[in-house]
Amino acid sequence: MANITESDVLYEDNHYIAINKRGGDIVQVDNSGDKSMEEMVKDFVAEKYQKPNGAFLGVIHRLDRPVSGMILFAKTSKGLDRMNRLFHDRKVKKTYLAVVREKPPHMKGTLKNWLLRDRKKMITKAYDREVKNGSFAELDYEVIGHLDGFYLLKVNPLTGRTHQIRSQLAYMGCPIVGDNKYGYPRGSLKRTICLHSRSLAFEHPIKEEAMLIKAPLPVDGFWEKFNVLLSDKV
Length: 234
Hints:
- The chain is α+β, with helices and mostly antiparallel strands and 234 residues long.
- It has helices at 37-48, 77-88, 164-171, and strands spanning 9-12, 16-21, 58-59, 68-74, 93-100, 108-118, 123-127, 135-147, 150-157, 195-203, 210-214.
- Strands 1, 2, 3, 4, 5, 6, 7, 8, 9, 10 and 11 form an eleven-stranded mixed β-sheet that branches.
- It is globular.
- The mean pLDDT is 94.
């Protein structure tokens, strides 16, 4: 697992740093023993600004390990508190890109499900009705284009549930490419899936400026061919 370098940084100011996460990296320490992004970014900031006693770093949100793309960290406790409030109040627009093999039933739509976490199998099950101990989940999706037998979707989750996009798209009949945990027939040898955190849009809670931070697609021999389907709006 490579360390964070300046080329991974998408945006940085006194309060925040946005990183283009590689698929396969973990955001926080787990039982794998692998170095986490939290540790790597903290080391990067401490070295960059010559902080021998270490740097403050706050985890604002998370991405699943096999997911790539834009992730935002806080460099100050004030920044962390303010962004946590924005996420809690749903004032952050999250846009993801997903590649699926099956054609969605509509060119665009809204998925509403109840999700139930199976902690033994570490998966989230989606239902079309309310279930006991379930959490309501909602997302918008749109088909951006079709290429070489694959469909590129833009996804905007309106709620923030564990594995929400993965389970809801699978329930629709469109498991994400590489996501054999949710029904795609083959997993990736790189242990990644074709789900990419494309951007975050929000009002900077300290500068009070409109922010849109984007992450370019991974360069892995597959993802980058979908650049031809993207426009400045995605």
